[in-house]
């Protein structure tokens, strides 16, 4: 099979690329390397350095099919950043997706898998764990932009029969267990890599955003889903969308508080994590835990990395081998 992966040089996308290659598929990555890394692309995979904001360049890449499926990861993806730059986030994420969807329709792509997010469920009125049909109430412009794309994909299916699978990831985490890829955002804003770096003395004390949330220990709770399990979910989804479009929440169903993440990093690294309480970060919901039971039922998907220490061990391994990320 032959697949096109936008954002395949980034954190989550690069792990899907590895999973597709491990299964013997041909892969082309469309990426402008704005946050991704050339070194994250394995041998045998072609990089088309294209900006999805450029419709004509996107069309020239997509015309080079046929594709058995397209995976769309490329986006701006920071909740806090989107609270400071709302219009930019909404414009960027929707325009890049519109260009890709238009090119897919023009060039007879039949299936697209889209990186959606738990940030769709940012509002206060919801139960936990969060089922697929929970009330959608984005708590940030980032989440709103992803909702707009989901709705666009709905109409692309209704009118053009472009089938889509929207995977609403909870917190993507971990690194390839074989050490072939990892997380290298610049600047890094995600909790697990920042906590490991604070433990290793590579950064000053971790700022813990919010200690007065309505949770047992006052810090936010997140559901960390390993990128290798996420990659498996993407591949399983392809069979589901031959004739219909689907949307699934994807997570382990287990939430860990930010303070529990700190304790886990201390166990795994053997170092104390220096941290200090800081104000809440705008746009952060108190608790995001997935009910992924329909994904499990429909596809047979089962996450292999359900223990936070094991997830963090894979990150620690990659960060120890790559203290300067992909620059090494
Ligand atoms: N990391 C998470 O916890 C998480 C959670 C939920 C959803 N998501 C979604 O998953 C996707 C991937 O997230 P990530 O953490 O791997 O991000 P990332 O920044 O590591 O990867 C994004 C990739 O897209 C590329 N890109 C960005 N704009 C582009 C453009 N205009 N044209 C071509 N390429 C472009 C970047 O260079 C990068 O390689 C995003 O859509 C994000 O919203 C991530
Ligand atoms: O220095 C830091 C960084 C993070 N946090 C806290 O750690 C938790 C997790 O934050 P991350 O930045 O690691 O992840 P987010 O939950 O903000 O966001 C991630 O998951 C979301 C869905 O849940 C989105 O899809 C988004 O793309 C993705 O980055 C939050 O409570 C945050 O406030 C800190 O306390 N200090």
TrEMBL record:
Pathway the protein takes part in: Carbohydrate metabolism; galactose metabolism
Highest taxon of the lineage: Bacteria
Source lineage: Bacteria, Pseudomonadati, Pseudomonadota, Alphaproteobacteria, Acetobacterales
EC number in record: 5.1.3.2
Subunit organization: Homodimer.
Tagged with keyword Isomerase: yes
SUPFAM superfamilies: NAD(P)-binding Rossmann-fold domains
Keywords: Carbohydrate metabolism, Isomerase, NAD
Protein name: UDP-glucose 4-epimerase
Stretches assigned to the NAD-dependent epimerase/dehydratase domain: 4-251
Listed cofactors: NAD(+)
Catalysed transformations (reactions): UDP-alpha-D-glucose = UDP-alpha-D-galactose
Pfam families found in the cross-reference section: Epimerase
Family: Belongs to the NAD(P)-dependent epimerase/dehydratase family.
